[in-house]
Amino acid sequence: MKRGRGGNPEPVERLIESFTRMPGIGRRSAERMALHVLRASGEEFEALAAALRDVRAKVRHCPYCWNLTDRPICPVCDEPSRDRAQVMIVEQPKDLVTLESTGFYRGVYHVLGGLIDPLAAVGPEDLAIRALIDRITAPEHNVGGVRVAEVILGLNPTLEGDGTMLYLAEQLTPLGVRVTRLARGIPSGSHLDFASPAVLADAIAARSMMPGPHPE
Q1: FRET partner for 85 with CA separation of 20 to 30 A, picked from 24, 60, 142, 151?
Q2: Does 70 reside within a domain?
Q3: Could you write out the DSSP letters of every residue in 102-155?
Q4: 202: three-class secondary structure by DSSP
């Protein structure tokens, strides 16, 4: 039997290497995950394999907000009671889930899928910014055909988040849309998923205008 790194059988080594390509997973964590899979019962293994197949086959981006969904459009966009003229920009689907947990925000969202990060070779073209601009300039690209009146920048207050917000403000303000950001009740350098629902609700309520020219 052909052996891989560390004396592991080659199929095990391939599994470990697949796990190490996941964000935040190092070699040791990948080895533990691989051993767990090997020790799993046949029923557990088939359940994992079925879950992976379903994610690949059924989950897609919502055509309006780019949230993940297994339906034609995501549940938030599909809810008639939401204010579809108000769009909250978030980095990842998990941030949307965190903000929804407050029960305070009643607009819709737009998921960028990341942040502008030149050091990681991530530019505006790698994010869902073009789709956002389309939603603003052409109402038919927004859910319900509603014209966007306000964009709320709900990105994490990190160096990359602040840089992305400044870029978005420069791109969106000339389009005649109101551009605001969450209040700094969220500490700089922290992440939305670490904030309590009360802190997030306060940040949404006390959002402020981004610097720069604004439409009357």
Answers
A1: 60
A2: no
A3: TS---EEEEE-SS--BGGGTB-GGGTTHHHHHHHHH-GGGSGGGPPP-EEEE--
A4: helix
3-state secondary structure of 89: strand
User: What are the C-alpha distances in Å from 107 to residues 53, 54, 89?
Assistant: 33, 30, 11
Helix axes 129-137, 159-172, angle to 10 degrees: 30
Question: Percentage of residues in the chain with pLDDT exceeding 90?
Answer: 74
Q: Is residue 20 part of a domain?
A: yes
pLDDT in tens, 97-152: 999 998 999 999 999 999 999 998 999 999 999 999 999 999 999 999 999 999 99
The structure's pTM equals 0.75
For the record, the structure tokens of 15 come out as: 């599994």
Count of domains forming the chain: 2
Q: Is the pLDDT of residue 153 over 90?
A: yes
Are the CB atoms for 102 and 199 separated by under 8 Å? no
Q: Are residues 44 and 129 in the same domain?
A: no
Boundaries of domain holding 51: 5-58
Burial of 191 (0-12, 13-18, 19+ CB in 10 A): middle
Q: Which residues, including other chains, have CB under 8 Å from residue 129's CB and lie 6 or more apart?
A: 112, 168, 171
pLDDT at 14 exceeding the cut of 80: yes
Split at pLDDT 50, 70, 90, the class of 6 is low
Number of continuous H segments (helices) and E segments (strands) in the chain: 8, 7
